[in-house]
Amino acid sequence: MGVTPSSQIAMRACTRVFVGGFTFRLAKGDTRIAIWPGVCIEQHRVFIRADVPFPGPVREGPLAIGVTIPKPDKLDWADGEMLTAVAWRWVSQVGACRR
């Protein structure tokens, strides 16, 4: 599966990270990472490892998938640290151009 549709994410385990003004989401079984500008919580938050105040309004509910990037082969959906590293690399290379 490329990217789990936003309207179906409540039925699938996933990890989200918020880096550089973007939300990065990888769901179990996905082969691509979904990216949205801002803070996006499509359905409901279930488990939060590190909760910090968000830098702006939180967009909730199903969202259209905007940008996706390939998931590195070694990245597991539950590996928040590696997803964060991938996110920072994307933001440093491309993210500043998309704002």
Summarize the structure.
The protein contains 1 helix and 6 strands.
How would you describe this protein?
- With 99 residues, this protein is of the alpha+beta class.
- It has one domain.
- The chain has one helix spanning 80-98; strands at residues 14-19, 22-27, 32-37, 39-41, 58-60, 67-70.
- The strands form two sheets. Strands 1-2-3-6 form a four-stranded antiparallel beta sheet.
- A hairpin with a 4-residue loop joins β2 (22-27) and β3 (32-37).
- The termini are far apart.
- The mean pLDDT is 83.
Key terms for this structure?
alpha+beta, two-stranded parallel sheet
SSE inventory with pairings:
Elements: E1 14-19, E2 22-27, E3 32-37, E4 39-41, E5 58-60, E6 67-70, H1 80-98
Parallel strand pairs: 4-5
Antiparallel strand pairs: 1-2, 2-3, 3-6
